[in-house]
Amino acid sequence: MLQRTEAIQTLADHRGDALSVACMQSIVPWHEAQQASQGHIDATGCMGSASSIGLGLALGRPNRYVWVLDGDGSLLMQLGSLVTVAGLAPTNLYHFVFANGLYQSTGNQPLPGRGVFDACGLALSAGYRRAARYDDAATLRDDLPAILAAEGPSLIELTIEPEDGPPRWARVPMAAQVQTLREELSVSA
Amino acid sequence: MQTEATPLAHPIEGRVIAAELRRLGVSHVITVPDTLQRTLITAIAEQGDPVLLPVATEDEAVGINAGLYISGHRPMLLVQNTGFFASLNTLRAIAVEAQVPTLMFVGEFGRDVTKPVSEHTSPRVRVIQPTLHAWDVPFYRLDSPADLPHVEAALRESYERRGPVVVLIGAATS
Predict the structure, then answer these.
(1) Going from the N-terminus, what domains does chain B have, and what CATH number goes with each?
(2) CB–CB of B70 and A52 under 8 A?
(3) Which of A137, A163, B87, B133 could form a disulfide with B58 if both were Cys (CB 3.0 to 4.6 A apart)?
């Protein structure tokens, strides 16, 4: 299995100028990998909404890649979003799902259906163009260029090790990030 | 002798509202359909501008609205009162706390137009205004053709406040 931090670093190495939306326990590692200072939003306090915010960005900026850093528990919160994404079919949306089978932020309780549900299978059934699962960094690193060269929407499930320790939370208010990203995208008030 | 009760809300033509949304520069109408706004949804779809985006849940609609707003568009939501209640936590996080202008047309499904909303036994009709007050969400009513300017006022207020503003639709659009 992957460590979350090595998966984050592997993604960071390939991000380029993609816009990103992160949620839950991927937020702080994404900040620590220096990926949050530009082109980024933390989806905080709205578990399950990262992919919807990403979908809006992808539809609004079809010339930019949009990456969503989701969790398996978050995905379950708004599972219907897979169908909405697939139906609107933005070719520039890449949906990374960090999967540890746990609600890590509330103390590592197991997800319902842990080990039974199949995020890649759900995405493909919903109509995503591609889905793939990775559990080692070397293969992920080798495959990422091809994943990103192919049209989305794509779901990339990253099987990560459970992590101990208290949850970590972003300290940047989402409202500030919203206005900053609008300014970066040259949107007037 | 039985007398016919006077309606308190009257139909507005869906195509008139759709034309107003286009005039105001609304870019997308993100919707989980509403019984009362059927003809409005049809009119928007036929008009083609704004773009009609059907989605699976009202939670998603709030998130997509944010992404489109951030990227420079002027979206809005069209939902039913039941769906409004379903979306409250996401609305709290994204529209209120993240300060995203979020204009919502909310159809009062289950309303008897001959009664004031406060006299309804159905909570989905009776408690929506108290809920909006409690959440400090401004709202307007679209209860007759004379209320059409409320759409522009609501849109403007959502941008001035950077938050949610609701337009309650009291009678089925025609």
Answers:
(1) 14-169 (3.40.50.970)
(2) no
(3) B87
